[in-house]
UniProtKB/TrEMBL annotation:
Organism placement in taxonomy: Bacteria, Pseudomonadati, Pseudomonadota, Alphaproteobacteria, Rhodobacterales
Protein name: tRNA-2-methylthio-N(6)-dimethylallyladenosine synthase
Annotated EC: 2.8.4.3
Keywords: 4Fe-4S, Cytoplasm, Iron, Iron-sulfur, Metal-binding, S-adenosyl-L-methionine, Transferase, tRNA processing
Catalytic activity: N(6)-dimethylallyladenosine(37) in tRNA + (sulfur carrier)-SH + AH2 + 2 S-adenosyl-L-methionine = 2-methylsulfanyl-N(6)-dimethylallyladenosine(37) in tRNA + (sulfur carrier)-H + 5'-deoxyadenosine + L-methionine + A + S-adenosyl-L-homocysteine + 2 H(+); N(6)-dimethylallyladenosine(37) in tRNA + (sulfur carrier)-SH + AH2 + S-adenosyl-L-methionine = 2-thio-N(6)-dimethylallyladenosine(37) in tRNA + (sulfur carrier)-H + 5'-deoxyadenosine + L-methionine + A + H(+); 2-thio-N(6)-dimethylallyladenosine(37) in tRNA + S-adenosyl-L-methionine = 2-methylsulfanyl-N(6)-dimethylallyladenosine(37) in tRNA + S-adenosyl-L-homocysteine + H(+)
Natural source organism: Aliiroseovarius sediminilitoris
CDD domains per UniProt: Radical_SAM (cd01335)
Cofactors, names only: [4Fe-4S] cluster
Residue sites binding [4Fe-4S] cluster 2 per the record: 162, 166, 169
InterPro entries recorded: Elp3/MiaA/NifB-like_rSAM, Methylthiotransferase, Methylthiotransferase_CS, Methylthiotransferase_N, Methylthiotransferase_N_sf, MiaB_methiolase, rSAM, rSAM_horseshoe
Signal peptide: none
UniProt similarity note: Belongs to the methylthiotransferase family. MiaB subfamily.
Top enzyme class: transferase
Length: 443
């Protein structure tokens, strides 16, 4: 079709943004756009941005600068900024970068087609509202999601926003208040995905375990939603992320022990192991309550792989506070982790406080990462000799090789000449290298 235009989306930040990018591509797909893998031949470039740390936000401006040449060669090229930087700094983006045509926040992207009509007339469009209506109700169905269809593993956002207001975090401001999507819409979307070949669904939310969407008989918990998904034929695996320690309810812990489709992996960020710092972060849990929670989760599912997030150098963190974080890490033994140096975010309560010396914070980050890397390696190494399920996601680089994720979310390379994308096979792990495992089919 001659009027088909090409859309290039680049995604930064968390899985929620990955999901949003898919949905934006679908919304623009209904408007005649098809996706392309390079900005060079695009008619529309959309950056889906992240505001969580200063570096992430600044990257947007340098990235936009790089499109200057493209726009000079192709004056009709449209450039848009979406996501959390758009929400937080929309006006500033429009002012600092005149080549931007469109700014859209995370809660208004269902209005993209109307905004594009405005842009097509040569006007600028900006929408960073927190609208009354549910954007998901105004988006096209999932059948247009060509890109997602190539992958048997899909994301499904079930809850958005955050009411926790951790003292360092922009999410409650960029995503707005916590909202859970209704059960029937989620189940319908899950069925659509499975019909299109999806075998694994990861339920998403900034506080996904606080999910309390309207369903039959009242509000449903995340565990109840998981049990409903469990009955969908063809759906083999269920995961969820990100969880908050305070919302880890008994029924969810129990599901980890009893629901076979729920994978043995849990991302449960703690941020710090010091009660003084946790209090100043407004986390409303202690190091000890977190450790006791981990104990209960491990009782329900002994082989669960735990993952976490850590911030080092939070204002007024002293050596002892940092050592407390190191002890907590030693006690938990993480199979996966993300760690960051504290970054001051404008408008957050912690921005008022005295910073830790940067060299000290950097040194702490290196020590903490070395410990976490050691733990990750030895947990990965301990998989050798074990049998796991692997969901094949794509062909590997070697002939006859398939690549996929294990139950514990490790990347696994498998020699499987008859292997097909979307198959879930039993695999015996034979080797562990830096970032992945190697395995053989169990026949
Ligand atoms: N909702 C999730 C996390 C969202 S942000 C949760 O509550 O766990 C992802 C991670 O980024 C956080 O867990 C935190 O470790 C990190 N982060 C958030 N704000 C930060 C900041 N100002 N500086 C450094 N890291 C930050
Ligand atoms: Fe941010 Fe805290 Fe909410 Fe997570 S729980 S999104 S860290 S405010
Ligand atoms: Fe970033 Fe927004 Fe996600 S700030 S981490 S893209 S919710």
């Amino acid at each position: 079709m001659s009027d088909q235009k090409k859309l290039f989306i680049r995604t930064y930040g968390c899985q929620m943004n990955v999901y949003d990018s898919e949905r934006m591509a679908e919304a623009l797909g209904a408007d005649g756009y098809i996706e392309t893998d390079t900005p060079d031949d695009a008619d529309m470039i959309l950056l889906n941005t992240c505001h969580i740390r200063e570096k992430a936000a600044e990257k947007v401006y340098s990235e936009l600068g790089r499109f200057k040449g493209l726009k000079a060669d192709k004056p009709d090229l449209k450039i848009g900024v979406a996501g959390c930087v758009a929400q937080a700094e929309g006006q500033e983006i429009m002012r600092r970068q005149p080549l931007v045509d469109l700014v859209v926040g995370p809660q208004t992207y269902h209005r993209l087609p109307q905004m594009m009509a405005q842009v097509a007339k040569g006007e600028k469009a900006m929408d960073t509202d927190f609208p009354e209506e549910d954007k998901f109700e105004h988006l096209p169905g999932r059948h247009g999601a060509k890109k997602a269809m190539r992958n048997p593993s899909a994301f499904l956002t079930v809850q958005e926003g955050c009411d926790k207001f951790c003292a360092f975090c922009v999410v409650p401001y960029t995503r707005g208040a916590e909202v859970s999507r209704p059960v029937d819409r989620i189940l319908r979307e899950a069925h659509d995905l499975v019909e299109r070949g999806v075998r694994e669904i990861t339920l998403l939310g900034q506080n996904v375990n606080a999910y309390h969407g309207a369903g039959e008989g009242g509000d449903w918990s995340l565990a109840r939603l998981i049990w409903a998904l469990d009955t969908i034929d063809g759906l083999e695996r269920i995961r969820f992320t990100t969880s908050h320690p305070n919302d880890m309810n008994d029924d969810l812990i129990e599901a980890h022990g009893t629901c076979a489709k729920l994978m043995p992996y849990l991302h449960l960020p703690v941020q710090s192991g010091s009660d003084k710092i946790l209090k100043r972060m407004n986390r409303s849990h202690t190091a000890d309550s977190y450790l006791r929670l981990i104990e209960r989760i491990r009782e329900a599912r002994p082989d669960i792989l735990l993952s976490g997030d850590f911030i080092v150098g939070f204002p007024e963190e002293d050596d002892q506070d940092f050592e407390d974080t190191m002890s907590l890490i030693r006690e938990v033994n993480y199979g996966q982790a993300y760690s960051f140096k504290y970054s001051t975010r404008p408008g957050t309560p912690a921005a008022e406080r005295a910073l830790v010396d940067d060299a000290v914070a950097t040194d702490r980050l290196h020590r903490l990462q070395a410990l976490l890397t050691d733990q990750q390696r030895s947990i990965q190494q301990s998989m050798v000799g074990k049998e796991v399920g692997v969901l094949f996601e794509k062909k590997g680089r070697l002939d006859g090789q398939m690549v996929g994720k294990s139950d514990h979310l490790h990347a696994v390379h498998v020699h499987a000449p008859d292997g097909q994308v979307g198959e879930l096979r039993r695999v015996k792990i034979v080797e562990s290298s830096t970032n992945s495992l190697a395995g053989e089919l169990v026949v």
